[in-house]
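When time allows, look over one protein, given below as sequence and tokens. The question is which stretches look regular and which look disordered:
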Amino acid sequence: MPLDLDHFRAKLASAREALIEQDRRTEADRAPVTLEQDSVGRLSRIDAMQMQAMALAESRRRQIDLAGIAATFRRIEDGEFGFCISCGEDIAPARLEHNPGIATCINCARKG
């Protein structure tokens, strides 16, 4: 049974929009930390810098996820979606349903 590519496109588009929205909502958390000596104590500045570092790391993870989604859209357009990039075999539909960005079959994933 052929894969419903429109279904997977919709799932990917939804995931992409969610990541973009999360990045937009947390933009202020990634802003440079101001070091106003008079109004903020040293521990508060350290906490703010740690929060900023975590927000930046989360943003980097979202950018990696967005790049993966873009790569999956390319695989769909190139007719390569649903085939393992390592061995060329079909990827189980249930595996793709769980994560359409998966690019390897379960056997190659276990080897890797």
